[in-house]
Write a structure and sequence with these properties.
This protein is mostly helical. The protein has one domain. About 80% of the residues lie in helices and about 0% in strands. Helix 1 packs antiparallel against helix 8 and helix 4 packs parallel to helix 6. The longest helix has about 30 residues. The chain is globular, with a radius of gyration of 20 Å. The protein starts with 12 loop residues before the first helix and ends with a helix.
Length: about 325
């Protein structure tokens, strides 16, 4: 398993970046559909959002915590000065806490809770759409990245698309609708993931070590707390009583797929393309997940959702186009 951390070195940086983008898009698309199908109370799911978050964290920890302990021991045995947290996270305490809070704990709790209230079509627009917006703003603020006029136009289109979707939900809030709650949770979840992605670039984090770190923090902070609240009856939870096939499926897909695999590929994209271009490359996610929501989940595609999806996708593509000259120039300098 530790040999996987050296797998990227066998390929060119361009190949690694493209493969990481492809895997990330496929998993993120599946994530939106499966999370909605699992968390939607109307579909009779047995697990609550906090149950699914538990499965996600424990499933990922099964692989990543032993991996992290191995890396820490290897670093110490080789005599390298290595900061670690609890002998498991291969990053320092303050870095583990920062990236783990946003990329591990808050993101999972917010996004699964959002799927209780809002359909997958809303998530298809708001999460991939909000992510480039938050990432661009945070990268401008923390890293000094420049927002070009074309990228600003793309971000403006994304904002319009998000408003078309979220604004409709807010209008129905006066009638007792709760979809706006899910929309807000999706936007906040995207902000947390954007914060993690910018922090990963700021600290120059290795893809594997960053993913281990956020899982270590989430496991230590969430699993004991969840277990104590459920066993004492303070909070309802079904992960210990639900059928094993449901629990194992969530642990495998949410933990192994969404955290281990896509966490590594997404962070690898950040290292190769930078946080802004990495999120822009995921332009296929809104369209693919929206089609899946209509075809597989039977969700209606209303005009505001279709137009919002179009604006978000075009806005992301504008961002990709804006980043191309910078990327080409960067490659020519390093050649």
């Amino acid at each position: 398993m530790p040999a996987l951390s050296h797998l990227f070195s066998r390929f060119s940086p361009r190949t690694v970046g493209l493969l990481s983008a492809l895997v990330t898009v496929l998993i993120w698309t599946s994530f939106i559909l499966i999370a909605r199908a699992s968390a939607d109370p109307a579909r009779g799911g047995l697990l609550s959002p906090f149950d699914i978050a538990f499965c996600r964290i424990v499933g990922a920890a099964m692989i990543l915590l032993p991996w992290g302990a191995y890396l820490v021991r290897r670093d110490r045995a080789s005599g390298k000065p290595a900061a670690s947290w609890m002998g498991v996270s291969p990053l320092s305490v303050h870095v583990t806490l920062r990236v783990g809070l946003f990329g591990g704990l808050l993101y999972a709790m917010l996004v699964y809770s959002g799927f209780v209230y809002a359909p997958a079509l809303h998530a298809s627009v708001l999460m991939p759409g909000s992510l480039p917006l938050w990432t661009a703003l945070l990268a401008w603020w923390l890293l000094g990245d420049r927002i070009t006029p074309m990228r600003a136009l793309g971000l403006g289109l994304i904002v319009l698309g998000d408003l078309l979707v979220g604004g409709s939900s807010l209008r129905h809030a006066l009638d007792g609708g709760e979809v706006w709650v899910g929309d807000l949770l999706f936007v906040l979840a995207a902000m947390c993931w954007a914060t993690y992605s910018v922090l990963a670039r700021h600290h120059g984090l290795d893809a594997v070590r960053a993913t281990i770190a956020i899982t270590t923090f989430a496991f230590v902070a969430y699993v004991p707390t969840y277990s104590a609240l459920v066993f004492t009856g303070v909070m309802p939870g079904h992960v210990f009583t639900a059928p094993w096939r449901d629990v194992l499926f969530q642990a495998f897909f949410q933990g192994w797929g969404s955290v281990v695999i896509s966490g590594i590929t997404f962070t690898q994209m950040i290292r190769h393309f930078g946080p802004v271009r990495s999120t822009m490359i995921t332009a296929l996610v809104p369209g693919l997940s929206a089609l899946g929501a209509v075809w597989l989940l039977g969700e209606p595609m209303r005009w505001n959702l279709g137009l919002g999806l179009l604006l978000v996708t075009v806005g992301i593509l504008f961002g990709v186009r804006a980043g191309l000259p910078i990327a080409i120039k960067s490659k020519s300098v390093h050649a």
